Amino acid sequence: MTYNPKRALELLRIGSGRADATFREGQEDAIRHVVEGRGRLLVVQKTGWGKSFVYFIATKLLREAGNGPALLISPLLALMRNQIAAAERMGVRAATINSDNQDEWAEVEAKLRRNEVDILLIAPEKLGNEWFNTQVLAGIAGRISLMVIDEAHCISDWGHDFRPHYRLLERIARTLPANLRLLATTATANNRVMEDLVAVLGPNMKVLRGDLNRGSLTLQTMRLPSQAVRMAWIAQRLATLQGHGIIYTLTIRDANQLADWLKTRGFAVDAYTGKTGDRREELEQALQENKVKALVATTALGMGYDKPDLAFVIHFQMPGSVVAYYQQVGRAGRALTSAYGLLLSGDEEEGITDWFIRSAFPTRQEVDDVLGALNEAVDGLSIPELMTCVNMGKGRIEKTITALSLESPAPIAKQGTKWQLTAAELGDGFWERADRLTKLRRAELQQMQEYVGQPFGKHMGFLIDALDGDSSTVSPPSLPPLPEDVDQSLIREAEEFLCRTSLPIEPRKKWPVGGMPQYGIHSASTIPYQAQPGKALCVWGDAGWGGLVRQGKYHDGKFADDLVEACVKMVREWNPQPKPTWVTCVPSLRHPDLVPNFAKRLAAALGLPFHMVIAKTDDRPEQKTMANSTQQARNIDGSLTLNGQPVPHGPVILVDDMVDSRWTLTVAAWLLRKSGSGDVWPMALSQTGHDE
Question: Rounded to an integer, what distance in angstroms lies between the CA atom of residue 407 and that of residue 401?
């Protein structure tokens, strides 16, 4: 097909909204290569270069010449709304089939049949979906003019723990017609990753690699061990930083907590995480329109989000790899002459990253447990049924199932809602790959630690070298370093904030699968006597009160008076209605005096009587050793009873030191209410953070 440069430039200007727009170096070459069908192409260009223009303009030119639709595979479709809007401005009819728009699937399928879709965007998981393959892909497979793989570094084994379904592309690539136009794009590919991609996506893959240097981006690192100090530093500097930006955290909890703290300081910010749900689009737009100073985000706001005038990216903790960091910090300064990329490093990040590394792949024990359970089940098992058979969290079961199902040949297969064993055996290659990638992640973490230690002015060169780019042209930072000093009074306020935050304890409303047989409950029916919403003072071992709770439980054998005072304050601010008239607690055979002692002191401080009315029938494993809610429910079944003392009438505060699954509090509340108590208000010193 003949390439039309005049029309391509026209489309760029329409799509960018700029009448004077011109192609960046390499952009037009890439479009021409695709349109003319010169073979498969891998584009490795820095964030903000405009990779999306390449595939949208190529798609439009191909469609105008009478070719079939394009298929775009991307891991973060939800964050491509602005790109889809740009595509539609230039007349490219884009549609998506993803987990967020199931109500639109039938309409999209119908449009594809009528040839009214120019480019279909899907997540890699859809390639393993039977409905998609038979009802959608089969209908357009012979007409696809271009296949685009965005964030193609995920095809390499580097990305398999991030989005394991990219492994399906390894198999699909082998079956594609040799003359099919295939475009792969990424911003973060070192030499090893590029070699992986060429090996998978060949034959005759041409690589178009650009300059990774970001001259507009001033990078700086600071070691500020305490969360309170980093919170104070951000609050202090956010007031003087020009423009709008993103603040990244490693965990959802930190994103919410940091956003809440900054709101108390008067900043227009909001949290953006994997649990933000329907508000995602609203928040993305709010940042686009500068209605918020910043979004405090996890990696949910990473690849795919484009705000060209983003003035700063701050990391609350150190990410686990250079690749991830370059992706995130590269959101800043795309259309600005200067922007900040600030990385704050703290004490807790290594433990968090270590957990991510350790949990990236299923363990041998987890694989053995799942395969063993399936071997015992003649008709297979669903995920909820597996939860009753193996002591693994739902997320770990799903991760193990996904990893096993993507093997070729796969030792398991899905029939309807259930997973069954196949005749295939799990090969050694599975474990070799897991071991190799775990070692790679450790090396990447070490590399990031080296990055944090770089002096000001050396960070961009370090990143480019780490990504096997050319660092010889790196220019000095365009902005001065920001001061590292922090106002001491602001630190104290941050510490107080961490200590006065509390966490909700949501009541369970249904019994587990299979019920609680020892209590005479045999189905997942509605719980008739439910607890009220409760409160936990802190997260176990976390900043604020978490460390003091841990010290009291495992070192002092007694919870400090400061925790009593903190809980009194929490209860008074909480002000549950109807007002509690007495206090009780959950018993323990391992630490018989620990919680009762605390509950008595709390009751006295609240001016309420304490009554010990619940007893433990036998010693069970600690709930934290049970990995999912079904196992935790089974573990508590029959273990609590009333001790024969009169149960006072009236609302009660039910105290425990830790809440994990909420089953202990659920059963205790059920026993109390069934015996005539009033409303039960659960209260715990800490949450484990592992609730399912």
Answer: 10
Q: Determine, yes or no, domain membership for 133.
A: yes
User: Does 506 share its domain with 452?
Assistant: no
In this structure, is the dihedral angle defined by the CA atoms of residues 474, 476, 477 and 478, taken in order, positive or negative?
Answer: negative
User: Which stretches of 360-453 are DSSP H helices?
Assistant: 364-376, 383-389, 394-405, 428-452
Cα 224 to Cα 235: distance, rounded to the nearest angstrom:
14
**Quick one: 196 and 244 in the same domain?**
no
Closest CA to 326 of 192, 187, 465, 154: 187
Residues 12 and 131 in one domain: yes
Q: Provide the CA 351 distance to its chain's centre, in angstroms.
A: 17
Per the structure, the count of domains in the chain is 4
DSSP letter for each residue of 46-86: -TTS-HHHHHHHHHHHHHHTT---EEEE-S-GGGGHHHHHH
The Cα angle at residue 483 between residues 479 and 484, in degrees rounded to 5: 130
Give pLDDT tens digits for 161-200. Answer: 667 777 788 777 777 777 889 999 988 777 888 888 888 8
CA distance 406 to 416: 17
One domain, residues 623 and 513:
yes
Identify the helix (H) or strand (E) that includes residue 294.
strand 294-297
CA 639 vs. chain centroid, Å, equals 36
**Is 692 a residue whose pLDDT tops 50?**
no
Q: Which residues pair with 610 in a beta bridge?
A: 583
CB 543 within 8 A of CB 498: yes
Sign, CA torsion 449/453/456/461: negative
Q: How confident is the model at residue 303 (pLDDT cuts 50, 70, 90)?
A: low
CA 676 to centroid of chain Cα atoms = 43
Strands (E), 114-202: 119-122, 146-149, 181-186
6-15, 72-81, 477-486: segment of lowest average pLDDT = 72-81
Q: Give the range of the structural domain holding residue 420, as residue numbers without chain letter.
A: 357-433
Evaluate whether residue 110 is within a structural domain: yes
Residue of higher predicted confidence among 438 and 615: 615
CATH number (domain holding residue 554):
3.40.50.2020
Long-range contacts at 291-294 (CB < 8 A, ≥ 24 apart) = 292/244, 292/268, 293/238, 293/244, 293/245, 293/267, 293/268, 293/269, 294/238, 294/244, 294/245, 294/246, 294/247, 294/262, 294/267, 294/269
User: CA dist 656 to 577, 584, 587, 678, Å?
Assistant: 20, 9, 8, 18
Whether residue 493 is contained in a domain is answered as: no
314-320-321-327 Cα dihedral, nearest 10 degrees: -40
Answer left, alpha or beta for residue 310, where phi above 0 means left and psi between -120 and 50 means alpha: beta
In a domain? residue 665: yes
In the 8-state DSSP scheme, what is residue 602? H
Q: Measured between alpha carbons, how far is 612 from 589 in angstroms, rounded to an integer?
A: 14
Q: Which pTM does this prediction carry?
A: 0.82
Instruction: Name the 3-class secondary structure at 465.
Output: helix
What 3-state class would DSSP assign to 531? coil
Q: Is the pLDDT of residue 158 over 90?
A: no
Structure tokens at 101: 């728009």
Angle at 315 between CA 309 and CA 321, to 5 degrees: 105
DSSP-derived 3-state class of residue 692: coil
Task: Please give the pLDDT value at position 581.
Answer: 98
Same-domain status, 28 and 165: yes
DSSP annotation of 482: P
Beta strands in 596-678 (DSSP E): 614-616, 640-642, 652-659
* Intra-chain end-to-end CA distance of the chain, in Å: 54
CB 186, CB 44: distance < 8 Å = yes
* Cis omega (within 30 of 0) for bond into 409: yes
Q: Which of 209, 239, 256 is the last residue of a domain?
A: 209
